[in-house]
Structures are given as structure tokens and as C-alpha cells.
Hints:
The complex is a heterodimer. Chain A has a single domain, classed as MetI-like fold. Chain A is built from 13 helices and no strands.
Amino acid sequence: MLEFMVRRTLNAILVLWLVVTGMFFLLRLAPGSPVNSLPPAVAADPLARAAYEAEHGLDQNIFIQYFDYLFGLLRGDLGTSLYDGTSVMSQIASHLPVSLELGGLAALLAMVPGFLLGCWTATRRGSWSDGAVRVVTVLSFSVPAYWLAVLSLVFIGQRYPDMLPTAGGFVRFTEDPIANLKVMLLPALVLGLSTFALVVRSIRAALIDVLSFDYVAFATAMGMPQRQMMKRIAIRNAIIPTLTVVGVLLGGLVSGTVLVESVFQIPGLGQLMVTAFLRQDYPLALGCSVFTAMIFLGLNLVVDALYFVVDPRTRTSTQRRTAPVMA
Amino acid sequence: MSELTLEPGTSTPGRHASDDVVLRVSDLAVRYAAGRGAAVTAVRGVSFDVRRGEVFGVVGESGSGKSSICNALMRMLPNSARVEATGVEFGGRDLLSLTDKQMRGIRGTEIALVPQRPMTSLSPTTPVGQQLRWYFGDSIDDSDVRDSLARIGLHSVLGRLDNLPSRFSGGQLQRLLIAIATLTNRPSLLLADEPTTTLDATVQAQVLKLLLGIRDTLGLSIVYVSHDLGVIAQICDRVGVMYGGRLVEVATTSDLFHRPQHPYTKALLGAMPARWTPERGRLSTLRGTAAGANRATGCPFAPRCALADARCTEEMPAVLGDRTSMVRCHRVEEAT
Ligand SMILES: Nc1ncnc2c1ncn2[C@@H]1O[C@H](COP(=O)(O)OP(=O)(O)OP(=O)(O)O)[C@@H](O)[C@H]1O
Ligand SMILES: [Mg+2]
């Protein structure tokens, strides 16, 4: 198990490196330059331009810049923003918690009710309530998130304006938890809706599968009450295939924050990243990408580790694999 | 196959003879909905008794409806299935008219089931010891319960209770399942639906011995389902022969093997590899298949029967005999 997790972690680090390298060169190769987004007085004056480029090391060989960046990254130094000279790390530190809150809230609102509803409909297969849930879930994941975001902005925002984090009026959780949750609720619901629907569908499918297995029939034949059977046997085994889906869905939530933050004007990492890219603020854009990739990979590692918790077979099978080596 | 004898008498019919009937099935029918209003009839007109301490065998080829009977008795058929019967009496109650709640009280307590596939019948993600605790409760810690488990060869299992089911062999698991089914609540009826088909011959013999031993000590009745006549011969007191969803013959094991009546029973015996001797020449096989037999209006075996005439295909033969031994065949009827 330990060996497996170490391998997975090394894998994640390799992927992270590939992301950094890819993003670094793609940004530099893209047409345009950060200088263009500077005030016209600087942007139009060749001398001022050169001075600016020299100051930020943009005139150096691209590979030297690359290795500079990489070594800085290893020391935890993400550089400074080309736009306003602030430290990239401090920018991320102020925006990341907002995104984590949004993503976490969306995950919570999607996974918990999704799980419960999925279990409930699986035991009621073919009934009208199962059919109703099916219609709702199909609608939920076929509605595009951006459309839903704009729609809720227009309709709900008009009627209940204090549900919206209108520009500049965003309150942090640490300042006023109630007001913060109020404005986060709508974006989190929009972000989590399709995840919710897919959780319902996948746990339902997995449970229906498991309910047809021999071990459920034996427990029923032994007179085990349905509730106990669901808890001890059916759900326990149905969670395993669902976990894979959950891993993918969590990744979807991470990328979904970019869109939802832009539409709802939430000052999170996603919004920061979009602005950074628009301004061709290389260090900030890269820093945001690195963090997004880290969250993504970190979540996958957590899901991998969860397999060991919910499926004891994986524990024994890796033991078995290592046993002959030690013998 | 060395441990398998074909001679009936390993268990003597009538050893537990007393006429109290534990299970009385009358005119049982099972139908499955097959989409767009169509239905598949899996079982019809099946009647038999099982007496206390008796092992009643049900034999028949694949698809003849054996499992459907077991699941109907347990009331564990899928939602698509419909069960009808004049009566399924068990311990003075009609199983089919009980509420779901009453039926749950009977499952595992008064009627238990030994599953066909031991390897997949315990939850794969929970250690065996924990699962034993679900069924035995805290009495699993009692020394007499442990003793009885050890006595049926579960020593090694008791030593590794923290292991998952996948770490044990099919034979160990089947013995464990039989122990759970019979020892937790001491049921009076055990349904065994091909409990040894996935096991090899030696392990199969051990499991059969175990079942008979438990029958003797607890005096329970067993409905033993199999398509293997060799196994049936070893452990059953009486046997019912199924074909196309119908019970075509019921007889004591000794009568069935020495004086088979129904042409299908005869064909079945003739096709047994163990009965084959070089002098007999080719192993006899049945021509045709059983496809469609469950829809036949007449005798389900008629299309494959050498003795069949027009009447056989049109009219289902009446029951000749009583609940303890009977045959349904026009030819036998005419001969008597
Ligand atoms: N869930 C179901 N839906 C529809 N038809 C079914 C279902 N289960 C069984 N049948 C049909 O009912 C008939 C009897 O099946 P059953 O499983 O009782 O046979 P069996 O004698 O136990 O066979 P085997 O020896 O292969 O286990 C078969 O024709 C089968 O196709
Ligand atoms: Mg069967």
C-alpha cells in the first residue's frame, strides 16, 4: 500500500512538472507580450519597453528563464506579477481560500444529497419516484453550466440581489460567515448541479448491480433486515466503483470554478487566473496553473488513498504482490 | 469420483419415517414477465411433500425450473415473477399468503438456504469473522459454537477470522455457509440449490457428508436441488424429476434408480456416465433439446420421447400415484 502511494505521488510530481513546462513554453510562444498591456506611454516607447523587459528578465534566453523559474519554484518562489509587481504567492494565498470554499461547498452540496438520493432510488427501481429522479438528473447534467449561471444571475439575482456577490461587494467567510455563505450558495449550486446528478446516477447504478449479487441474496435468505443489509453489505460494496467516478467529478469541480467565478464575480483563483492570462502576466498565470494542477493531482491522490479504506481487497492484493520479494 | 457411489442406500429412506409433513407444495406455478406482456412459464402444476428429517431431491436439466421452485419457496423471486399455488404449507402456515414482514421472520430462522456459489455468497469487502458475527451475534465467541464449527472442519477458518472471504477455498466457504445456514437459528427446512456444483469431487463428498450429518443431529428436512444424479443417489431419500417446468416423476431414491417409470427418468439414467460399461456400447444421449418444453400443452417430454403419440403432445397426463410417489405418463398409465 505504501509502495503504491509512493509511486502515485511520484507520478503526480512528474505530471506537475510536465504541466509547468508545457504552460511555460506555451505562454511564451503565444503571440503578444505582457508589455502590450502596460500603459501606452511604456508600450509605445521602444526604450521604455526594453528597460521593462530587462527589469523582468524577459530579454533573456527562454531556456534560462525556464530554469530560473523552475529553481524558484523548488524554493517556493513563484516570482512577482508583471502587471503590478506584487508577489504571486501572496496573490494566490488571498484568492485560493475563496475557490476552495466554493469548490468544497459545491462538492458537499452535490455529494451528500446525491449519495442519499442515489441509494434511495436504487431500492425503488421502476417506481414513479425512480422515474422522476431519472428525469431530474438527466436534465441536471444536460443543462450547460454557463447557461444556468447566467440564468440564475438574471432571474434569482433580480429578485434577491443580496444572494449575489456583486462586484466589489464580496464578503469573505472570515469577515461575516452568514453573509458569505449567502452569496456563495447560488454559485456553489450552479457549480455542483451536474456533479450531483452524476453522483445520483453512478451510486444508483452501482447499487443496483450489487443488489443482484449472490452475497446480497444470501444475506436476504438469512433474514437480514433490509436496512442492515444495505448498510453492511450493499452500500459498502457499491461505493468502490462510485469512487472512481467521484475522482473524475472532483476534477470537474476544480475546472468548473473558473467559469462560475467569472460569471458571479467571485474573487477566487479561477478569476485570478483568467485575468492573469488576459494580461499575459506570465508568472501569475503560471502560478495559478501550478496551483490548480496541484489541487487536481492532490484530489486524485486522496481518492487513490480512499480505495484502500473502502476496499480491503486492494490492501491484501498489494501485500500479496510484495510477499514473494521478501521471502 | 472415487467417493461417489451410485448405490442408493447411503441414506436409508424411511429412517426418519414419520408422517409429519414439514412442507407441502400444491400446484405451484412460477411465471416471469418477459417484456411487452409476454410471460415465460418456468414452473407449473408442481406438487410435493417434504417430511421431517427427509432429504428430498429435485433433479432435472438446466432450465427445468428447479431454482425457480427454491426461490418461490423463499419468496425471493425477482419483481418480474408471479407465483401461484393452491397452497405452500409450511409449519401450519401458507407461505404465499404471509406478509413480507412475516416472511422475513421465517427466512434464515425457519427456512434457510445454502447457495450455489460459495465463492461469491459472502460480502467480498468484510472480514469473515465480522460476517459470522452478523449472523451468529455474540454467540460466535461461545466455546460450544466454536467447537461445532471446528468439528465440521472450520479450524483453519477460525484461526483467520480477520481474512476476507477471497482468502478461503470454495470448500471452506461452502462449509462455512452451511454452518451459518443451519447453526445460527436451527431451521427446520434447508433449501440447497446445487450447493456443490462449483466444488471438485472430493470436496463435494465432504460437503454432502456434512449436510447429512447435520440432518441427523438436527433432524432438519432438506430440499436438495441438483442436475447430478450421482449426488442425488448419495444423499436423497426421495427424488422428484423435473422436465420443462413440470414434475414428471416422484419416487424413493431406490425405486427411481432401480425401477424408473417415466421415459425421461429412464433417459436420464441411461445418460449417466457412471452407469456406462464397455459392454453397453455407446453412451446413450437424448435427441433434441428441451427448448419450448415449458410451453407444451401436453407432456413436456413428448417431442423427445420415443414412445410418444398424438395424445402425449395434446394432453398432460394425470398424476398416477400419490404425493409420496407418482408418475405422469400416458404410457405408464396404459400399462397399469
Ligand atoms: N429472472 C428471470 N426472468 C425471466 N425468465 C427466467 C428468470 N429466471 C429464470 N427464468 C426462466 O425460467 C426457466 C427456469 O429457470 P430456473 O433457473 O428455475 O432453472 P433451473 O432448473 O434452476 O436451471 P439450472 O440448472 O440452469 O440452474 C428458464 O427457462 C429460465 O430461462
Ligand atoms: Mg438453478
